[in-house]
Amino acid sequence: MTDTKYSMKMEKQFKSKRAGTLLAAIVLLIGIVTAGMILITIPTVNAEDDITLNEVTDQIIDISDKYNSAGITSGQLLNLITLTQTDDELLDTLSLDKNNLFDTSIPKKVNIQSSRSGDLYDGNPPASKGEQKDRMKYIRSVYDNEYNDGNHDESIYILYLYTSHYIDKSFSDEKNFGHPVYANIISQNDIDAYEQFYKAQAGVAIYKAFRTYTIGIKNFIENGANYTLMNELLGSIKKNMDDEYSKYITALDAAGITNSTDILATSAKMYNAFTGALDNGKTKEEEIIDYMNSQLEPGLQGMVSSTYFGFVKNILDKLSGSGAATGLFSSVLSGVVYYFDTLANVIPTLSLAGLYYSYQMRKAERLGIYYGLKPRP
User: Fold this and answer.
1) CA distances (Å), 351 to each of 98, 217, 270, 335, in order?
2) Are 133 and 333 in contact (CB under 8 A)?
3) Do 73 and 341 contact (CB within 8 A), yes or no?
4) How many other C-beta atoms lie within 10 A of the C-beta of residue 42?
């Protein structure tokens, strides 16, 4: 145990023929129609894979919720997971910027607005992580049906389609445009408007989270990984998690830290001390805990710091040595959990005025594409 290393700088630990033809055509047509109707089916990685992305996502949400309840935010958890890599391979794969993507500060309270309020600042944030999971599942199916032809960047078009269906209300509400099928159409004017909308505001965080989510899942599938095996790995993480969680919460309780605000603030201090140890070249368990104690007030030294280390170590140990597993965990955590926990604060603050101003022009172009007068970009 004492020789185990836990730093991004340490060693890799934490990485008739006519009749027959007619019959075949009919069968093919039925298959196409059926596939089009089942919009929310996520394909498995391979024929032997009995577990779906949806089930894996549920496991990741459960794990994240447990860490969140101990004051470890989704942003901190994402950063800790990337520390299991000693090079930039994972970061390159996920298009992450390890220096500034994830906010590790204490998040503000999320005040969810009623959906479709009509306010220019109503970005229709998801009401729960489960809703965000379902939204992403549906949007992936729309992409597969409408744009998955090798010519439309999945990581970008997932964001465009999500924006069109859930944020850009002019297109996604039947009362505004007649039918939500128009939300599936992305014109060049839409692309220009959405790029400006995200890059000119705090929405750049949303932009990055969506790209992380999509690219991570795509690479997981293309590398031949298996959702069933991933599900088993997540199960092993959860198996030990409750015990480590109990130890940490008990230590906090003994130190008089019992309400959620104090737990969150204390865990933020623990996170800073832990990552500080890694940044200062500490590689062994005793070295890391000793460094943490040197940065913490007396009441947080000893049991609190050591049990925090054990709680964090549980997930880092399990994900180390498996770039595919780490990549998928990070991508789902980013696109579903981190999005809801942190970015739900951003959506209500993004003025949608710019999208409303360009609505009529974009509506005309979408109609032209719908009636075949213009090609899709």
Assistant:
1) 28, 30, 36, 22
2) no
3) yes
4) 18
What is the reported pLDDT for 180? Answer: 64
Residue type, 144: D
Please state at what angle helix 53-69 crosses helix 323-332, rounded to 10 degrees: 70
In the chain, what is the straight-line distance between the N-terminal and C-terminal CA atoms, in Å? 55
Cβ distance 39 to 142 under 8 Å? Answer: yes
- 34-76 pLDDT, tens digit each: 333 222 333 334 434 578 888 999 999 999 899 988 888 888 8
Q: How far apart are CA 174 and CA 40, in angstroms?
A: 20
Token look-up 């009623």 returns 114
**Over 50: is that where the pLDDT of 236 sits?**
yes
Are 363 and 179 contacting, i.e. CB atoms less than 8 angstroms apart? no
- Phi, psi values for residue 9, rounded to 5°: -100, -10
Using DSSP, state whether 200 is helix, strand or coil: coil
| Portion of the chain with pLDDT greater than 70, in percent | 68
Of 102, 83, 89, which Cα lies nearest the Cα of 283?
Answer: 83
Q: How many CA atoms lie within 13 A of 363 on its CB side?
A: 17
DSSP one-letter string for 91-128: HHHHT--TTTSS--SPPPPP-PPPTT---TT-----SS
196 secondary structure, DSSP code: H
pLDDT band at 198; cut points 50, 70, 90: confident
| CA–CA dist 143, 170 (Å, integer) | 20
Angle at alpha carbon of residue 124, lines to 171 and 363, rounded to 5°:
15
H helical segments located in the chain: 17-37, 53-69, 74-82, 89-94, 129-146, 154-162, 169-172, 174-177, 188-199, 204-222, 227-254, 260-279, 285-295, 303-319, 323-332, 339-341, 353-357, 359-370
Question: Which pair of structure tokens corresponds to residue 329?
Answer: 């965990």
Question: What is the Cα–Cα distance from 80 to 8, expressed in whole angstroms?
Answer: 9
- Closest listed residue to residue 334, CA positions, set 31, 107, 132: 132
CA 323 to chain centre: 16
Is residue 266's pLDDT more than 90? yes
* Contact assessment for residue 321 and residue 12, using Cβ atoms and an 8 Å cutoff: yes
